[in-house]
Amino acid sequence: GAVVSQHPSWVICKSGTSVKIECRSLDFQATTMFWYRQFPKQSLMLMATSNEGSKATYEQGVEKDKFLINHASLTLSTLTVTSAHPEDSSFYICSATTSGRWNEQFFGPGTRLTVL
Amino acid sequence: AQSVAQPEDQVNVAEGNPLTVKCTYSVSGNPYLFWYVQYPNRGLQFLLKYITGDNLVKGSYGFEAEFNKSQTSFHLKKPSALVSDSALYFCAVRDFILTGGGNKLTFGTGTQLKVEL
């Protein structure tokens, strides 16, 4: 099946620093990638949707200047959490999909971000 | 907007017994439904999907789901549970088709399945 990787799997940083998370589709070209945030024992909250070469579409309430998304190629999207604060600590999951209208999303393993 | 509901936060079942994880949906138009499983500190793994056709959908790891239009349900089932099935299960519905292709999904709140010996 389709494989999506994320790097790093976990990161600890100091408040005020920026953190970049990479999402790669390893064996397929992803026309669309999604970034989710998940709080403990809760569902996934969609943060933004990105297409290769286009600006990301952010969900209501998500700060686009804080969560920078770049979808540079059909196999790579990055999420940068700028000036991170403890409240940004969370589990971030990306997913990727192809253009077929019936196609499911394939999820990465997630990145645990802890901001001290 | 499309939505799904998972009425149970947790389901406990003994190994070897059948299991059911419930999901109901609310959509305008035809529903396109998915089940995903999440193991601790991992991303979601696709189990199965319903688009059209047979009401009984077979998926990965021996799971299946029954689509019931009259009850607006899409319950996940497995005839004989394993301890290794213990995980968090999410039902999802396609919200809409994105301009660039692919589906935007809306997820339920998740059901924690615990299978005990």
Helix content of chain B: under 10%
Output the radius of gyration of chain A: 13 Å
Into which percent range does the helicity of residues of chain A fall?
Answer: under 10%
Order of helices and strands of chain A: EEEEEEEEEEE
* Structural category of chain B: mainly beta
Radius of gyration of chain B: 14 Å
Q: What is the chain-wise order of helices and strands of chain B?
A: EEEEEEEEEEEE
Taking all residues together, what is the mean pLDDT of chain A?
A: 90
Describe this structure in words.
The complex is a heterodimer of chains A (116) and B (117). Chain A has 116 residues and is an all-beta fold. In chain A, the strands form 2 sheets. In chain A, strands 2, 4, 5, 6, 9, 10 and 11 form a 7-stranded mixed β-sheet that branches. Chain A has a 4-stranded antiparallel β-sheet with strand order 1-3-8-7, with no helix packed on it. Helix content of chain A is 0%, strand content 52%. Chain A starts with a strand and ends with a strand. Chain A is globular, with a radius of gyration of 13 Å. In chain A, a hairpin with a 2-residue loop joins β7 and β8. By secondary structure, chain B is mostly beta strands. Chain B is built from no helices and 12 strands. In chain B, the strands form 3 sheets. In chain B, strands 2, 5, 6, 10, 11 and 12 form a 6-stranded mixed β-sheet that branches. In chain B, strands 3-9-8-7 form a 4-stranded antiparallel β-sheet, with no helix packed on it. In chain B, strands 1-4 form a two-stranded antiparallel sheet. The mean pLDDT of chain B is 91.
